[in-house]
Amino acid sequence: MNLISKLIIILILGSSLAAQDAYIYGRVLEAGSKSPLIGANIIVEGTTRGTASDLDGHFRLIVSSGTTILTSSMMGYQTAYDTLLSKVEETHQVILYMTPITLESKHYVMVLGESSQDKMLNHLQQTNLSTTENLMANIEGVSMISRGSYAQDPSIRGLSADRMNITINGMKSFGACTDRMDPITAYVEAEALESIEVGKGALDVASGSTVGGNLNMTTIQPTYETFTSSAWKIKGGWDYSASERKVAFIWDRSGPVSAWKLNGAYRKASDYHAANAQAVDFTGFEKMNINFAYKKRLSQKSQFSVEVLSDDAYDIGYSGLPMDVSYARMRMLGLTVHSTGLHPNLLNTEWKVYANSVDHWMDDSQRDQLFMDMHMDMPGFTRTVGSYVDLMVAGRSTSLLKFRSDFYWSSSFAEMVMYPEASSPMQMVTWPGVERWNLGHFVEYQSRLSATVNTKFSLRYDVFNSKATDKVGIQELRIYYPDNKLDRLDHLVSANGQVSFNISPQLQSVLSLARGSRVPSVSEAYGYYLYIPEDGYLYLGNPDLPVEQSIQIEWQNSWTSSRGRVALNLYHYDFNNYIFSQLLSNESLGYAKGWKRYFNGGDAYISGLEISAFHQASSHVTWQGGMSYETSYLQDQHDHLPLIPPLELHGSFTFHKQYFWFQAEFRTSASQTQYSSLSGENATPAFYLVNLKGEVLLTPGINLNMGIKNLTNQLYYEHLDWGDIYRPGRSGFVTLTIDQGVMER
Amino acid sequence: MKLRQLLIALLGSMLLILGCEDDNTDDAVTDDLILIGTGEDKGLTLDFYAQQDLKVGLNKLYFELKNASESLVSEATITQKPIMYMESMRHSCPVTGPDAQANEDGLFTSEVVFIMASGMMGQWDDTVRVTNEDQVHTFVFESLEVRETNMKKNLVFEDVDSNRVIYIVTLNGLEDPEVGVNDITVTVHQKVSMMSFPEVPGLSITLDPQMPDMGHGSNGNIDPVYTASGKYEGAVAFSMTGYWTLDIGFELDGVDLGSIQYEFNF
After folding, report:
1. Best of B181, B207, B213 to disrupt the A interface by mutation (most A CBs within 10 Å)?
2. Cystine design at A645: which of A143, A367, B16, B227 (Cβ 3.0–4.6 Å)?
3. Residue that wins the pLDDT comparison between A680 and A412
4. Whole-prediction pTM value?
């Protein structure tokens, strides 16, 4: 901190200064999400000196030199302490992490924590060429479904697609591809990603009804600074196996009243090589991503922010499918007003309104082997508009109440056109302009019953209306459903409860019970002629599908010490009305083996366990590991559930010292023999992987990142990958980052 | 006194006006129909209407008969004989009705299956004979325009006695095919002679739509079932646009008579 800043702080604080004072420049953040806590009371213990954290969690204090104990307290959080030893005239930067007094069922991953002081999560720092997907795959219970090398679709405990909600900063968006080639996780590049919040199962229904859980990606926000300043960062990288080049930049401007941040990334990759040195065809892609955020204080307690996300991708190869994406475009806009402490009991209010559109064009113009020797186009379009209001109310000092009302409207249209040489184009509508709106109300009550027992209960009520609007699409569906209105109204009630026992300061045990449900997806209810390559069948939607429901029980245990943490989770989910597929005919239809229809598969269950461990062996060395295993069964069909990951084990060793960081990672997956034969799956062989990564700080502000992935050159693919396409073989990467902001300091 | 007279006068004139409307036609019904021609013979006027422009295939025709005093005649014996005059011969086509009784709209309904288009090959005339109150009236409608639809095909086969049999088949309802379910009517009449085309009931008809480029058919088809007067009603479902062939198969008492094929490109 420069001299001018110190002077201004002295002037601001205005208190009389003794020559033996030291300065504290700090920030209060929430322990899990790392979001700034506003209005926390920070007191210098033993004095009357104190202050409150601002809209960005920042605070400034002048303290006497020597030992200082800071306490930070805030409604709904456990009091945090920090002890510092300071010399005269010294400046300290302090970060105080506050843990909510009650339960959080979320699992957080802090990514690219360059300035993260929390060593516990530093071990997850990946290379700067990491994709958002790589980072997600490291969370126990989260697996990525690969349909090519460009975008992977997350699944939580084997549940994916419409069984879970995926949001970007709380905003919902829906893919425009009937084959799910465009999960919205592709729209946040690693440079812009701040954290990934994963809520597993129906325990977390704040943002939507679900049976599988929620995944929210938060982007790095601009920060207020006392003095207006501007900084930039550029990054360039190259990955050998796919000749992938990446260029990214971040540019921000921060001031006391407003701030903005602009992120841009460009990536271009060619086909990658698997371990057998064979190029895996159709795995290249090119994309450009822009993310802009601006915020401005409206008053002491309120701020307004705008965010814009834009993503354009070209020539994306999809090796697992007979076609590629020639162009995919996403535009997203969000406006938020956030207030804190409008009323003594009203801790937080947030109101957000957003809109996004996805346009996606698939075609096979790059392919030599055409489907049925005919060119095929498959465009798809979605539009979404939504809004939510969040309120956080404090009851007594030991309870917290959250309210939320949210709404969204979305439309989805997709069609398929084939061009035979001598006759008219064959056109059919595959998503018949389905319009869906959802209105939801949510309430959560958290309470600390005693020093050792915390409880949380939540309730959510949803109304969904879905209808087909495209004339040709409706005519097509009427072939199979002549009298169906193709317009449905669903009411859903979700409820859950959690009790946590702090058996000792180190041992915590949490028992949860949840009931969740979800409406059928656009494809499941109104899809027409959807070709699923995994089993080679054409799928037909079923507008009469009942709502899928699940009762879930989970037991989480964790043991924490100053050196680390071990956690063990056991869970069992029971489903009824599990949406599955039913064979209609095995009569070959040209390229397809026959017809299937989505139908009520009846009762199903999944049962599993997750273990994670973290140990800080020394100030330089950390060990981290985890294991997950799940078993599943679909009773009435006498089959396993599809897309369930096999037993997986991973571990990493990280060494960190001053200017150097190194990580060795090991991962193994057992073979998956519990597959869904009715869905056309087959057994997947076991494999293991070794990855090495290193980072060197050449000078302050200039980093070099290097690594080798798949060190032993294994030829492998994962069970969740479509078409059993091999993943990359041994490959190296290098990235250079220049951070002007750090350089200036 | 004056008021009462006024009221009576009003009431009376109202009744008069309303009364006069009794025998008049409901013009709204004929508004939706196409007037093919009008004829007049010995005090009787015949308006000849069709549901749509005359075409090769099944046509619904209507006759409106009015006497000299412009009132509708609702009972009469009407016969019609459409004849196509070609260069070296002439022939008729299947005709049904009309009945001796007009329908509730005062129209005599009939159906004619035109089996060829008018034009270079010849022209169609329809001679209509109306017998009403023991008087026979003749109306001739000349040079009717019958447009080509390519929906008429011949099914030719040999019967048990090795005689050559010709069935005239027309497909109605697919002039403008759409994706989804299309209601169709298939007409089947036997060409016994140039002038005689009796209906053929009792057939088993199957539908087989196919997309040759894709190698698949479609679901949701309803095999046509006999209703009356040579008509079989069913439905063809097209799952997408493009090039389709439709094979219609005919069976009588378990004997396969053959099939005919139609093509669609939409």
Report:
1. B213
2. A143
3. A412
4. 0.83
